[in-house]
């Protein structure tokens, strides 16, 4: 479904579990500042990696996306956490675990045009949920076999899943909204999203979390799978229970996207250990977080609190011995 904000759009979202709205973000005004920030970050990381001997050279391509791909290739994906906008839920958190907390990313999280669209789905009290990722998907042929599993999950073909499974049960009744958009064109060739329309009505299904068995078993996915190619500025909105994945990147270039979550303020996020913030409040504008440095500091504080302690279980419980996972 592709439409402006009409009753038809909301009905489609409620019935099918997803909706695409074209042109929510302005490629020049809203996306380019983030692209430029990442280009500078790639240069900074490359300089550090060369100085510390992690890589030997850095060609510095002109386009920021190509700089990120160059780093991914040279580091075998090890640079990804330094590019992401959250702490890892799969790996141990240390005092120096890298995370990108740039002001342009913060500006994107609370972009007015984006919040206008989100308000249509969940109302005017909007909380930015700390389940968020920047995803850079290199061509599959450039993904070496020794890239760590968690990095592959976020940068290669994504397994079939429902977003509710990556948060704890306290968020089962939260009106969580998935917000996905690409900074460059996302096509079937370079790895766009794929959904099973209407699958959110089935409830939470079995997910596997074992070597070679990740996500929803094929037998539970369903055959009515629809690819969702989009252009920069288009936004895909997802119900937390819709089954979705992304295709492999079989192109010669990268796919670059953001994967965000929002919910009504006051509802559980399912990631109580990570910090969210009030992105918009129609009732009290003073509740909104507007300072990117304050946002960066609450993530640094969370990292310090979680460093070198037993890692919380960030995921919804599931049946690990289910026969479909064997």
UniProtKB/TrEMBL annotation:
Keyword terms of this UniProt record: Dioxygenase, Oxidoreductase, Plasmid
Keyword Oxidoreductase: yes
Cross-referenced Pfam families: PhyH (PF05721)
Signal peptide residue numbers: none
Listed InterPro entries: Phytyl_CoA_dOase-like (IPR008775)
Molecular functions (GO terms): 2-oxoglutarate-dependent dioxygenase activity; iron ion binding
Gene3D superfamilies: q2cbj1_9rhob like domain
Protein name: Phytanoyl-CoA dioxygenase family protein
Lineage, broadest ranks: Bacteria, Pseudomonadati, Pseudomonadota, Alphaproteobacteria, Hyphomicrobiales
């Amino acid at each position: 479904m592709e439409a402006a904000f009409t009753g038809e759009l909301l009905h489609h979202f409620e019935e099918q579990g997803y909706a695409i709205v074209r042109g929510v973000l302005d490629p020049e005004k809203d996306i380019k500042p983030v692209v430029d920030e990442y280009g500078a970050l790639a240069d900074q990381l490359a300089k550090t990696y060369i100085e510390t001997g992690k890589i030997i050279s850095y060609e510095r391509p002109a386009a920021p996306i190509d700089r990120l791909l160059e780093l991914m290739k040279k580091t075998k994906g090890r640079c990804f956490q330094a590019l992401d906008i959250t702490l890892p839920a799969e790996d141990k958190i240390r005092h120096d675990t890298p995370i990108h907390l740039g002001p342009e990313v913060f500006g994107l999280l609370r972009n007015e045009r984006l919040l206008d669209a989100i308000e249509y789905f969940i109302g005017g009290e909007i909380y930015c949920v700390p389940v968020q990722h920047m995803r850079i998907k290199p061509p599959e042929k450039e993904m070496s076999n020794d890239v760590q599993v968690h990095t592959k999950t976020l940068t290669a073909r994504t397994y079939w899943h429902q977003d509710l499974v990556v948060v704890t049960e306290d968020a089962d009744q939260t009106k969580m909204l998935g917000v996905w958009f690409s900074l460059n064109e996302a096509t079937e060739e370079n790895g766009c999203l794929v959904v099973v329309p209407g699958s959110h009505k089935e409830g939470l299904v079995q997910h596997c979390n074992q070597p070679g068995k990740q996500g929803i078993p094929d037998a539970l996915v369903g055959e009515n799978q629809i690819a969702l190619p989009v252009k920069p500025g288009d936004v895909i909105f997802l119900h937390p229970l819709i089954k979705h994945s992304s295709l492999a990147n079989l192109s010669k270039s990268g796919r670059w996207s953001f994967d965000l979550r929002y919910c009504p303020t006051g509802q559980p996020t399912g990631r109580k250990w990570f910090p969210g913030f009030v992105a918009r409040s129609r009732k009290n504008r003073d509740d909104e977080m507007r300072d990117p440095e304050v946002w960066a500091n609450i993530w640094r504080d969370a990292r310090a609190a979680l460093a070198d302690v037993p890692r919380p279980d960030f995921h919804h419980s599931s049946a690990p011995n289910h026969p479909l996972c064997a």
